[in-house]
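haha ok so turns out i had the wrong file open the whole time. this is the CORRECT one, sorry everyone. sequence first:
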Amino acid sequence: MKIIIDAMGGDNAPGEIVKGVVDAASSLDPAIQYVLVGDEKTVTGCVKDAGGKKLLGDRITVVHADGVISMEDDPFDVVRKKKNSSMTVALKMLADGEGDAVVSAGNTGALYTGATMLVRCVKGIRRAAIAAIIPFERPMLLLDSGANVNVTAEYMEQFALMGAVYMEKLFDIRTPEVGLVNNGTESHKGTPVYVETFERLSANENINFVGNIEGKDIPKCKCDVLVADGFTGNIILKSIEGLGSYFMKRMKKMLYANLATKVSALVLKKELMQFKKDFDASEAGGSPFLGIRKPVIKAHGSSDARAIMNACRQAAKFAGNSVTEEIERRAQFLQKAKPAEIEGSSAGEDQGDEA
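then structure:
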């Protein structure tokens, strides 16, 4: 297996990106090879600085690309103005069969646009979606988490199918329960698109639909896959990330208030560290773009070496479990209704780097 990494994408590139790949090559499956794409001289130097000199030419190779997609670039620059950027070269290599997956911590909108236009969508899937695991007691996959602001019921039905396949294949859940984000549990609640989505999911015998999920019930883990449009999903995801950070700060303040609470903090140290770990984005590694023909993993823009190593682990698991093949097989059973095309997918908008 070969994983291609955009070495120049992200706030901490290339140093932390390269270090994460060196750590992955040193600790993960020895059969996995890694291709770092970026300025050859700079990236090679970073590999050596990270202690990976012996891995060069064997487990790790470097492919030169002299351009970089910044966080400020227009997403379409990945296929228009910066065709020799590290992100574009990495995606082209994936599309041409020179690797099995791509990992990037770069511009989310550009990565989504490039993946859609260069690697292309799975046959039968109209829009790819960003999927993210919500770190509650029961793992819950949220999609779309930021790629498609404007959607149709058909798109959301496909999000449900793709999410179910992902949870089945990677989390060994036989019949994943699928819920639809809404402002009420009744079937008639929400916008017309959400009402139609409810009807489609209810009628689809290949999706284990459990109904609408209100915002207050999301932490109660009532489903394995949570479906939303990209605008709503992104707000939910970032709200949860923010609340996790807020709770940790509040608990730290309470537990370090006096000697008695400090003793309590020592007793609870293990549990507190686990709570912090659950809400740490670096533990998940990244968010997969479901619906693309080959695995593309979007790591957090601020990813450190540990996050990149975990993103490589995730990419390898994704590529090795035939997720896209199963999505394509099941897509043929979806309803064939053809709603009017909607313009304004945020593939052409910069969604930031936290989706």
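Residues 337-355 have pLDDT under 50 and may be disordered.
again sry for the mixup
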